[in-house]
């Protein structure tokens, strides 16, 4: 792995800014979903198929992005991903054809997946160079960017702006900042371009499965928390969405404190403690009745889940069985399957045993993170 040449404060904030802009790009799409559905007159099944295109585009682009970071560098992949994002978002705010929306959303997903791989590879190199945990703080900025752009879009739309105008504001911010700081991004990747191809090792695949579980949990809260609160506690849908807001805020807070916690207690303790917090949080959110307690449950889920993926990125970066850039692409791709397929799997299980028990099963899955922590985080 190449070393980062004595990064200045400007360079370090440029690396961080990539995570913020990636989160802003993803957060800008969420408020556009109901408008796209209305313009294209989609039913639930068609909307589900459309959203699937985003995940497929991301997953297909990630292996290519991993290879490109090795041969062309993180800066090149970040700029390509950013160009796709900024080109596709205005189209997602205006197109009304299902086919056109599907293709555009797949390309948007490819852009976001590409920049995600590049920023994690770059973050890994910077962390290795500084010899201290940095990845959780990087991902905290991703969470902050998602919250900020979703709020900005919501305020603009609430104020009467068209979807195109609202998303154009976000695109101008993302595109302008990306072009401004691109010169400070790393022009190389984590691996030697001449290194032979290597199949994913057992450890990388195992970490990929753990990422799948972590992102499945995130998808469960995103897609099912409001539905569950509405059905089980008769909470109005306009208020039930606050569960995800609480989850998102505590996840961001957990990530910003994650590097310090990892430095003090170690990756193993962070994974075990986080997994236990998620399981306790699901028990509280699903089984308890008073609203402060089940909201506290969702807060604990966000806090416990916050540092799983950042730690796993660092773990696969430390292994030597396969190139680090490709390893990042592998675990990111497998993880995206969790957030893509997880909500549908939960719906299927909920149909068989009920939504309450299905969500409890999701919480129990985090036992895999607890039990594997020592083995996975071991060098």
UniProtKB/TrEMBL annotation:
CDD domains: MFS_MosC_like. GO terms for cellular component: membrane. Residues 203-379 form the Major facilitator superfamily (MFS) profile domain. Keywords: Membrane, Transmembrane, Transmembrane helix. Its main location: membrane. It comes from the Bacteria. GO terms for molecular function: transmembrane transporter activity. The chain crosses the membrane at residues 12-33, 45-64, 76-93, 99-119, 140-158, 164-182, 194-217, 237-256, 268-287, 293-312, 324-346, 352-371. It is found in: Membrane. It is a multi-pass membrane protein. This is Cyanate permease. It comes from Pseudomonas abietaniphila.
């Amino acid at each position: 792995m190449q070393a980062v040449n004595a990064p200045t404060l400007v360079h370090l904030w440029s690396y961080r800014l990539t995570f913020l802009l990636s989160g802003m790009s993803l957060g800008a799409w969420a408020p556009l979903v109901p408008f796209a559905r209305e313009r294209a007159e989609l039913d639930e099944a068609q909307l589900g198929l459309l959203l699937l295109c985003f995940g497929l585009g991301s997953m297909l682009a990630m292996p290519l992005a991993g290879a490109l970071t090795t041969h062309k560098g993180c800066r090149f992949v970040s700029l390509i991903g950013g160009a796709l994002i900024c080109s596709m978002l205005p189209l997602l705010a205006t197109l009304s054809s299902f086919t056109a929306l599907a293709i555009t959303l797949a390309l948007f997903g490819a852009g976001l997946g590409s920049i995600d791989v590049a920023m994690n590879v770059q973050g890994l190199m910077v962390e290795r160079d500084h010899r201290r945990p940095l990845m959780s703080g990087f991902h905290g900025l991703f969470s902050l960017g998602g919250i900020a752009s979703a709020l900005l879009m919501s305020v603009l739309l609430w104020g009467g702006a068209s979807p195109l105008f609202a998303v154009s504001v976000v695109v101008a911010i993302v595109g302008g900042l990306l072009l401004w700081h691109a010169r400070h991004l790393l022009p190389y990747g984590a691996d030697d371009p001449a290194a032979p191809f290597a199949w994913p090792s057992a450890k990388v695949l195992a970490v990929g499965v753990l990422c799948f579980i972590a992102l499945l949990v995130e998808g469960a809260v995103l897609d099912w928390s409001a539905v569950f609160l509405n059905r089980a506690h008769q909470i109005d849908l306009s208020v039930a969405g606050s569960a995800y807001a609480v989850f998102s805020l505590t996840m961001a807070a957990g990530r910003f404190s994650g590097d310090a916690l990892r430095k003090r207690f170690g990756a193993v303790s962070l994974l075990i403690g986080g997994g236990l917090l998620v399981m306790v949080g699901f028990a509280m959110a699903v089984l308890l009745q008073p609203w402060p307690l089940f909201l506290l449950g969702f807060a604990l889920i966000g806090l416990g889940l916050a540092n799983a993926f950042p730690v796993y990125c660092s773990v696969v970066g430390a292994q030597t069985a396969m190139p680090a850039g490709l390893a990042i692409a592998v675990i990111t791709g497998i993880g995206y399957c969790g957030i893509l397929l997880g909500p549908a799997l939960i719906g299927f299980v909920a149909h068989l045993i009920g939504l309450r028990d299905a969500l409890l099963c999701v919480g129990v899955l985090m036992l895999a993170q607890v039990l594997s922590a020592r083995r996975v985080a071991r060098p």
